[in-house]
Design brief:
Number of strands: 9
Strand order of the largest sheet: 1-2-7
Order of helices and strands: HEHEEHEEEHEEHEHH
Number of domains: 1
Radius of gyration: 20 Å
Structural class: alpha/beta
CATH topology: Rossmann fold
Helix content: 40-55%
CATH architecture: 3-Layer(aba) Sandwich
Mean pLDDT: 92
Length: about 250
């Protein structure tokens, strides 16, 4: 009975942590955006919302352009983030229409680069840290799901161009190069540590099966497209991670 009680309490505690995290996520997106819009209104500032490709959910359109309304599960475990960003976009345009606030909305796709949190749970960070530490690379099933990875300097360049331009957005900012998770793992293994194994683990619910930005709008309106290829960006991130983890190249 005591074992059962302990296990039950552990499960409830875990659920409480997840629920609290989700609450904070949606509050940050909604209340935080409202606060910043109120400030922008008072001081007459132009405001940028870094939205996300998550607003497209598990897309039924591929690649995703800005006219696509998305396929989001509103009650799923990821919805606190997906719907929080969608509401934030709504608030931005409401303030723009009603109060004349100058807004800019960027829909950011997966971004990577130096100075990321080593253990932030994002796939590029995970794979690089695991490879450096001689740990297996954990690919979430089925491994055929795709993502597109934009190097941080390209992302910053796109955001600056958006802020300095005249278009409100939303505009996709991301690298249209598309990789499966298995392809990404194989690339990290080849470039960083050929000795590590690649293993599969269970996936999280509502994980999008594919993700690739249509950046036609960014090209036409901002004169922007990414320059850094994945194979050029990964070593720069590896160097930064090795310095902070304290494991030099062999």
């Amino acid at each position: 009975m005591s074992w059962f009680l302990a296990e039950t309490m552990e499960v409830w505690y875990l659920l409480f942590i997840i629920f609290s995290f989700c609450q904070q996520t949606i509050k940050t997106n909604v209340i935080g955006t409202l606060n910043m819009l109120g400030l922008a209104k008072r001081v007459g500032a132009r405001i940028l919302l870094t939205s996300t490709s998550e607003v497209y959910g598990d897309p039924l359109v591929h690649p995703q352009d800005e006219t696509y309304w998305g396929n989001v599960n509103p009650i799923g475990v990821r919805s606190c983030y997906d719907e929080g960003k969608r509401v934030a976009e709504t608030l931005m345009f409401d303030y723009h229409r009603q109060h004349g606030i100058e807004i800019r909305i960027a829909r950011i796709f997966n971004t990577y680069g130096p100075r990321m949190n080593i253990d932030d749970g994002r796939v590029v960070s995970n794979f690089i840290a695991q490879a450096i530490r001689d740990e297996p690379l954990t690919v979430q099933l089925p491994g055929t799901q795709t993502r597109s990875f934009c190097y941080v300097s390209d992302m910053v360049d796109g955001l600056i161009r958006l802020m300095e331009g005249e278009n409100t957005g939303p505009i996709n900012i991301g690298n249209p190069g598309e990789f499966t998770m298995l392809e990404l793992a194989e690339t990290v293994k080849e470039m960083i540590n050929p000795e590590v194994k690649i293993i599969t683990v269970e996936n999280t619910p509502d994980d999008p099966r594919q993700r690739k930005p249509d950046i036609t709008k960014a090209k036409e309106l901002l004169g922007w497209e990414p320059k850094v290829k994945l194979r050029d960006g990964l070593p720069l991130m590896e160097d930064d991670f090795r310095k902070r983890i304290g494991i030099p190249r062999k």
